[in-house]
What does this fold into?
Amino acid sequence: MLGESVAIVADHHHEEKTMSRLMPRQPVPELAVPLVAGGEWRLADQTPDNFTLICFYRGMHCPICKTYVKELDRLVDDFAQRGVNVVAISSDTQERAGQTVADWRLENLDVGYDLAIDSAREWGLYVSTSRGKTSLGIVEPDLFSEPGVFAVRPDGTLYMGSVNTMPFARTHFSEILGAIDFIIKNDYPARGEA
It folds into this structure.
């Protein structure tokens, strides 16, 4: 129902990991994370007119995520005008996520943290190991998910997904906004379902 699973062997541990491939028009996995602002964000509680847009980002250590998530923060109202709820989620700790909100000056965005690595894999996200300090001078966590953006319909099925194996070449949120305008106007169906 959630698509197919792919077995992955992690060379450094020689453990087999399972990563899912989500399928459009099929239900997505459950998702619940604590929010920096307090309380819990649950996908099951979302009631948007059109979509819930979930941005999984690498974490406080990533300079590309800083630019990317700040762009999303700036566009929250634009998404809301189109009936789209927005959240940004990482596997960072509460302390790191709180520091992210402060340092990146995120003012509009719900920011979730403590994404479990198993949950990241259920969502089809790639997982990386730490390489020490980044160009921001911040040490990467031992394990963290690579970026992914998903649009989920109010019925909990996947409309669109984009997953990266590294921080580069991401889908821009301004392009997603334009696509949503087209999708709504033309009642465009989810693709990639076959």
Notes: The helical segments are 63-81, 94-103, 117-122, 173-186. The longest strand covers residues 4-10. The first helix runs from residue 63 to 81. The radius of gyration is 16 Å.
